[in-house]
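Hi, here's the filled form for the chain we discussed.

Project: internal
Contact: R.S.
Residues: 407
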Amino acid sequence: MAIHLISAIASAQAPPAQSPETAGSSGAPTGGAQSSTTAPSAADTPANQVPSSKTEKKKKEKRGKIVAAPIPISNAALGTGIIPVVSYIFAFSKEDKISPPSVVGAAGLITDNGSRALALAGQLYVKHNTSIITAAFVRGHLNYDFYGTGSAAGDAGRKLALTQTGQLFFGEFLHRIGWKFFLGPRVWIASSSITPHPDSSTADQPVLSALDLGTSPRALGLRLLRDTRPNRFYATAGTLFDFKANFFQVDSTPSASSGLPGGNKTYSFQPYELTFNKYMSLSKSQVLAYNLTLCAVGGQAPFYGQCLFGTKNELRGYVPGRYIDTRMFATQLEYRLALPKRLGLVAFGGVGEVAPSLGKFNGDNLLPAIGAGLRFLLDRKYHVNFRIDFAQGKNEHTWSMGIAEAF
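And the returned structure, exactly as it came back:
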């Protein structure tokens, strides 16, 4: 899924940069103990190790930190394999004491079903936290199953095996406009080629439109962001408001050998997505996190451009892309407990649904999920965790792993 699944390798698996807004209205940091601008705590510096030499001082003043991990992956969508991730977290300017740290990194994907992908991405916080520049390039091919569109298709579990080859470039520039809001344009340039692999022994399989087989999506969009979390890697307070709108034009050139009806055509679609997160500290070691995700798509969208349930941790416990439609909501609550020896535990639960229109949402098609996870602290300075989550959904379960929290 060129826009969702492949891009998730760059955005969801690689560690994100810290909050784009850690400064208060006065310009002074407001992050507290978790803020990247806060000096290391006494717990991080043994009492008998007071910097006294130039060598120790230089070590303390390192500009950045490398975070790397080979992330195992095992799910029904892409198979079993590994996602190697390496990221460099650093201050873009040593003189800038307000901006959160910037991040550049790379991630790969190798699974036993033949899926392969490579992603290069970077996010820079510049000019005293007044601008955010993001860019990513992703290329790869994925083998996965198409279940059809709608709740009924997802419940039925009928599959059509697909191979999707694609690449995309994404760029975004956000500028602070006041009241801790950032606003700016974004651009997508992508190409996708899909090859279906029908199972001759099974006649009852989802129908795939020929217009989805070969596409060249391009889009201009905008993003409105307000992020008051003191630390995006491990938020203990604050909120995130994130609205995205993209306006796609698609040139469709399906292969004549596909045997499916259709032809060359240009069409358009418009995905809109709203995310709201809130974080609250219950104690020094306990955090309660809430997430709400809303999605709506207008126009004639290919299936991979619609609302794909579970592709961005909206609700763990479901194979990404099994539930697809033009409307979606998902909400979840997660309890996080930090333990000694770099360990941590989480428990979460939530509910969501997909539908063709707002009036079609109903309690009969709700998608509940519940689960728990283990955390291991990779880096003390930025509080970057490695996560392992098990979740049970309506009709299946999933294991998911990654760097940084699910939301």
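Let me know if anything looks off before we file it.
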